[in-house]
Amino acid sequence: MARNILWFNEIGMDNVKNVGGKCASLGEMTKNMENLGIKVPYGFAISTDAYDLFMKHNNLDKSIFAELSQIKYEDHVNAARISQKIRKNIQNGVFPSCLETEILEAYKKLSEASIDYNGQRQSETDVAVRSSATCEDSSENSFAGQHETFLNVRGNASLLEKIKACFASLYNERAVDYRHNIKVSESSIKLAVAVQKMVRSDLGSAGVAFSIDPESGNKNVIVINSAFGLGELVVSGQVEPDEVMLFKPTLAQGKAAIIDKKLGNKIERLVYSDNQDKRVKLITNKVEMLSKMSISNDHAIELGQWVLKLEKYYGKSVDVEFAIDGITGELFCVQCRPETIHSNDDKNILVQYEFTQALPQPIASGIAVGDSIAFGKVHIITSMDNRIEGDEFKNGEILVSEITDPDYEPLMQKSAGIVCEKGGRTAHAAIIARELGKPAIVGVRGVLETLRDGQLITIDCSQGDVGYIYDGHIQFERKEIVLDKLPKPPVSIMLNVGNPAQALQASRIPYCDGVSLAREEFILASYIKIHPMACLYPEKILDLADQKEYKRLIAGFKNGEEYFIDKMTMGISKIAAAFYPKPVILRTMDFKQEELKSLFCGKYFETAEERNGLIGFRGCSRYYSKEYKEAFGLECKAIKKARDELGLTNIIVMLPFCRKLEECDKVQEVMKEYGLERGVNGLQLYLMAEIPSNFILAEQFIQKCDGFSIGSNDITMLALGCDRDSELVAHIYNEEDLAVKGLIELAIKACKKHNKKIGICGQGPSDKIHFAKWLIDAGIDSLGLIPESVIKTILELEKLS
Questions:
Q1: What is the pLDDT of residues 592-617, one digit of tens each?
Q2: Which of 120, 202, 266, 623 could disulfide-pair with 271, CB 3.0 to 4.6 Å?
Q3: pTM for the full model?
Q4: Which among 499, 577, 518, 508 is positioned nearest to 791, based on CA atoms?
Q5: Residues acting as catalytic residues
Q6: What is the CATH number of the domain that holds 140?
Q7: CA pair distance 548, 536, nearest whole angstrom
């Protein structure tokens, strides 16, 4: 029996045909999520039966298909004219009196059930009116932004008008074109409408959460994008949102598993308006809001728990729209749908992009979408409404715009790649770029001034979550690896990873057994940027300009110590989470004095003169020194937080440049003082074997730790007595020299004798296949390789076997 109005608690995923994907999901959650603690704003669906009734009442049911049959899809003017005519006819239609009465009675009932913040019942409550097509929000296609949504709708007349506008949006030119491109039959499509009580996120914040990393497809993380105000700015890409990443395995254990946080560029927010014609408006955020996260840690963790429950309930990866009420502080789920990209991936194919020439300095950067590289001529389009006649977009051009919306999709399909000045990972440009399999860089501030029409550029999304734009055509190659045809390596393969932004992508590499070397130096230089002692003693920063910059960098944190610990924790946690539960060997900071001095405020703390930093005040000698011990303590606190609070117990600590046996004891005493003790909570301690003393006294050193990782760069330098940075003796420097091999054999024998692990994390095996083969024959337990050399090394080892 046909029903025009269905309340959310009456419908579920079995009712997609009657109420569309969006309403079906809202109903499913309303009926089944309350007992899981998930709050969904209540409302009702105007069904496809009501849509059919409206169309028949206005004699539109047959005329629309007649009009659609006349569309010439390659003719933009023709398609726009026919689409506009259909929409105008729908919006000029009138509701049958019985249907109008049903809708307004349902709205009255919803209003009366809604109590305002003064405890009073509302006669005409504020609602969101959302299109819900029978074809959208499936796991195959997102239909992102194709159909209309209206916010802060209030009053009978306004509600009826917006419902008709939703019906009409089924025939937007962009929606018709999209369905044509993905071969969806027009006769199979109908549209329902969700009328849902609004959450006052205009006074709070809102956004989107993915139960899978949108770029790498890593299923162990949840990615949250959030901004102040109504969530449409995040979805449409008009703002660069804040981003929070959670680690699912330890979040499920009740841990506060935030492994990454990024502050977005939230200059504006969308709020309620009193204007009867435009019910929402953009306003500029106050200065103090720009340095504040729009979602608290507590709300992020609560939302993460909800996402875990929703993913488990639906049995597939999901993305969730959420809203936080700025008056009550309550979190609500306002929409949930299947994730549409990685659910359709071919898991047996690994595609890698690699540059074949040296990279110049990038001319701009932003948020990377995808993991590929593209080049082409810049074509700037600031508005689809005001395009100049003859401004034809050609196949293979790079689309550059402030933001994109569904009107841009025909151009996006023709493009080689997309660049947007605004937006985040959940913006329209990002979603469609992933569906099309094209690289996009969003949130590129000032890009419309940086680039010019016709300029040849290369856009690079292959280096992690930061995308780079290079001037000119930089040569690269694309490799496609069929994983089930890749031979199994004869030894355990581990990776050398410095940049946390690359960790999630690197974890997809086949036959990877963990991380042989995670470098703290990159985190310190790129994430923290401040000398660690300055974080403890800001009063020693004397220059006024330096003081101002210091305050800017630590904005949003209680003090410099909290800033350092949180930033370091997140950097190392992102790497550890990407490979969990596989081991991640984390080398504590091994900057030389000049490198530390080059950090912001380093000049105030690195005052001694040192002639040769490679064999100077570095590694373990720093950790127990009066000059640096407290800075090492900050590292220890960050590692302890990652292991104990976030649950990343796969982190193994490795000490670099440990010259003497007593140094190993002294450093372990300092670690214990700051809460890190070998053996407690399963903590393992490795030494980086890179000094001749480590090899000559390997039997004694190995009894003070749980394993060795060979640093082939430094042991080659010190065994042969040649500066590894000097081109004058570069011809002498050789990891395959008998002296170097002899020392390595001593370490391998000692580890085998005492049943301890030994691997190698230096550059040698990545560059020299015969050296890698020799290490395997000598009994090494694992090879540490740079990510881009893994496939090549596995294939070359197969040839040598």
A1: 999 999 999 999 999 988 888 889 99
A2: 202
A3: 0.86
A4: 508
A5: 428, 761
A6: 3.30.1490.20
A7: 16
